[in-house]
TrEMBL record:
<feature type="transmembrane region" description="Helical">
    <location>
        <begin position="148"/>
        <end position="167"/>
    </location>
</feature>
<dbReference type="InterPro" id="IPR025962">
    <property type="entry name" value="SdpI/YhfL"/>
</dbReference>
<feature type="transmembrane region" description="Helical">
    <location>
        <begin position="64"/>
        <end position="87"/>
    </location>
</feature>
<dbReference type="GO" id="GO:0009636">
    <property type="term" value="P:response to toxic substance"/>
</dbReference>
<dbReference type="Pfam" id="PF13630">
    <property type="entry name" value="SdpI"/>
</dbReference>
<feature type="transmembrane region" description="Helical">
    <location>
        <begin position="173"/>
        <end position="199"/>
    </location>
</feature>
<keyword id="KW-0472">Membrane</keyword>
<keyword id="KW-0812">Transmembrane</keyword>
<keyword id="KW-1133">Transmembrane helix</keyword>
<protein>
    <submittedName>
        <fullName>SdpI family protein</fullName>
    </submittedName>
</protein>
<feature type="transmembrane region" description="Helical">
    <location>
        <begin position="93"/>
        <end position="115"/>
    </location>
</feature>
<feature type="transmembrane region" description="Helical">
    <location>
        <begin position="12"/>
        <end position="29"/>
    </location>
</feature>
<feature type="transmembrane region" description="Helical">
    <location>
        <begin position="219"/>
        <end position="238"/>
    </location>
</feature>
<feature type="transmembrane region" description="Helical">
    <location>
        <begin position="35"/>
        <end position="52"/>
    </location>
</feature>
Amino acid sequence: MKEMLKNYKGKLILSSLVTLLPLFAGILFWREALILSGSFLAAHLLCLFFVFHDKKNRNQSKKALGLVFWLCPMMSLFCTACTYMALSETDASYVLMTLMCFGFGLLFVVCGNYFPKFRQNSTMGIRIKWTLQNEENWNATHRLGGKVWVICGLFMMVCGFFASIRLSDSFSLFLSAAVFPLLIVAAVLIPCIYSYVYYKRQVREGKVEKNGRTKPKSAALTIGILCAVALYLFYVLFTGNMEIAYGDTSFTIETGNWEDLTISYEEIEEITYFDQDPSHSVSGTRTNGFGNFKMSLGSFYNELYGNYTRYSFVDCDACVVLKVNGETVVLNGPDAESTKEIYERLLGRVK
């Protein structure tokens, strides 16, 4: 480890400084910049520690080590750019989705090109039971894995192209919530399945001995990680909530998924209740905000309202439409009954 630190000391210092570049954006959003740069620097140093600690990496490909040195710094800059855009731009959602697709697509393409150059080790690459126990399996799996990652990366870039031309909000949600995660899952699972199939073929040909059963602890850890990922995806895609707090002079829409919205009763010029949201029949897009299969929050645009604000539950067709200082605000509750209650309570306070 000391020898590797000595050989790569300059690159270690330079890559760490690049990782901390987001701190220069701290004038605009110091808290986010500090969290991002600090987190990526910690991840960067931790990755390098494990890579340097592995004796097998002393003869590792310089290109493979170069990828490890610059992966976290580039991710730090990319995530900072996305965060800055999300916090400062009015019409940022499509740009962010495009950047995410192109950024991760490029990452997968670069990693895929480097995979075949990875020499067998215990810290980098596709590190599963069958690749770690057999060098031939390792090489074959990384050759195929490299191709799979490049193909998935190119498809991610295609998703970014479709996001950039703004076909529709529902199509963008489909890309971000369905296609993009499926490409990531495919990039992970296909090489693992191939490695197992390759191992079984080696067993049949008598090149390797049949391995024993997977240790219970390893199986439990794998299942635990998969469950955690599944729960996280479920939380992001299918959960969300908001409540309305009524004050004497104003009301506030409170939600943990996006910014709270406060509206003064005196600013409300018009209030209308609809059993069916009239904007459902026209095309529209989310320009900045949060959206999943349960909630739509933030800034939107459609042919009926133009630029407007929406805080609504996706499954509820009823809505209350407000005119606030000439701007349109659409909101509802989880169901028609609660939406009607919102309308009546606001109607009683509007002068």
